[in-house]
Specification:
cyclin binding, seven-stranded mixed sheet, 24 strands, EC 2.3.2.26, alpha+beta
């Protein structure tokens, strides 16, 4: 999977309406290694001699018998002329041509930073509005926080015995916010409820997960789910009568500036892609962890995610678009889905439909506590899996799996 991000938003390479790659041209550049991999389908060029790669002005030009593809590279990144070399394509050599190349990365490109998530943007004594991502209805208005504090990470209670020489003082107690607090979890915020919530939010009690007869360690428990009263989208949970838990994949947090109205709702898949990609990058940097277990609120693993690298620049052009005169450039906010852009490269396993070998890997992760927990509602986990599968399907066949991982 390639979640990609540009200067501001963060997303996956596969947009909701992007075509499935069948052959065509695929490019991955590694900024740290200053190298690249170019894959050209046999439907575009029959042999290495049919492919010529040259440098343009801030671009890379791939010439094939089908037509030319011009890829505008991000600022500070340039192709080194004459460095493109044909390499074996392995078991997919009958379908694909593989080339290795070198790039130069300038300081301007190296200094670029990824955009921050809502967790990193919340500030003290500033006024914020919380909106439903689905319909952009204002849920909580004019919230000003005197304290914005991080919560302990997901495994804190497992090591509490190492902190205390007496019985666990936190047993059966919840960490709850005060009236003007905002407590930050890995994928959610905790806020105090006020009277305005009665008009904008609805509550429904439901089980967090069914009892699994083979797993008595994870009994069924009930949750009070919070939904938007306008569009019925699930937003989070009521973990106490006066406390809201809102997931960052379900709400948009905006600073209140004058009479400015909330922007139009973003495409759901794009918003989910960018939000999760940004958060995984932040967690990886802060925790020095590259393994994540995406879990439902009842603690059941849904996805195992292994972050490989964060320095890729990728572009994917289907065979039918090769020869199109339009250049494929780094994206603006509303640009077409075919583009070159910075990416996260992941391996993942779905625990809900796993093979025998994948179940063994999942069991190993659980027994050895591999994978920082990333908790999301079940429906969001399913949406995220679909986004990953869609992104994976746009890759060349040789890049869609590695052993038991997608």
């Amino acid at each position: 999977m390639f979640p990609h991000f540009h200067e501001r938003p963060v997303s996956l390479m596969a947009e909701e309406n992007s075509p499935k790659t069948r052959g065509g041209v695929f490019l991955e550049l590694r900024k740290i290694l200053q190298s690249g991999l170019l894959i050209v389908g046999k439907d575009v060029a029959r042999g290495p001699a049919d492919v010529v790669v040259t440098a343009g002005e801030s671009s890379l030009l791939v010439q094939t018998p089908r037509g030319d593809v011009s890829l505008t590279l991000p600022a500070g990144v340039s192709f080194e002329p004459g460095s493109c070399i044909h390499t074996p394509g392995g078991e997919h050599g009958g379908e694909e041509l593989h080339f290795r190349l070198r790039i130069a990365v300038g300081r301007r490109s190296s200094d670029e930073e990824a955009p921050d998530s809502v967790m990193e943007n919340l500030r003290l004594k500033e006024t914020y509005c919380f909106c439903c991502q689905g319909c952009m209805t204002r849920l909580l208005e004019d919230r000003v926080f005197k304290r914005v504090l991080p919560l302990p990470n997901g495994n804190w209670n497992a090591i509490v015995d190492d902190w205390c020489c007496h019985p666990d003082p936190f047993a059966n107690r919840k960490l709850l916010p005060r009236a003007e607090d905002c407590l930050l979890g890995d994928t959610f915020v905790l806020l105090a409820r006020d009277s305005s919530c009665d008009q904008t939010l609805t509550e429904e009690e439901s089980p967090a997960g069914a009892m699994d007869s083979q797993d008595t360690k994870k009994p069924c428990r009930r949750l009070t789910r919070i939904s938007c009263s306008s569009c019925s989208s699930e937003l989070g949970e009521a973990i106490a009568p006066a406390t809201l838990k809102l997931y960052i994949t379900q709400v948009v947090v905006e600073p209140v500036v004058g009479d400015r109205q909330p922007e139009a709702s973003q495409n759901r898949s794009t918003f989910l892609e960018r939000t999760v990609a940004t958060r995984l990058l932040e967690l990886s940097n802060s925790l020095c962890s590259f393994h994540f277990s995406v879990q439902t609120p009842d603690g059941r693993a849904f996805l195992l995610v292994w972050l490989l690298n964060t320095d890729s620049i990728v572009a994917s052009v289907p065979g039918e678009r090769v020869g199109d005169e339009r250049s494929i450039s780094p994206p603006a906010l509303h640009s077409p889905s075919l583009r070159a852009s910075r990416a996260l490269k992941l391996l993942y396993i779905s625990c809900s439909n796993a093979s025998t070998q994948q179940r063994e890997i999942a069991a190993c992760w659980e027994v050895n506590a591999i994978g920082h927990p990333v908790v999301l509602p079940l429906k969001v986990c399913e949406e995220l899996l679909q986004v990953m599968d869609d992104s994976n399907s746009t890759l060349p066949a040789s890049m869609r799996c590695m052993r038991s991982y997608e």
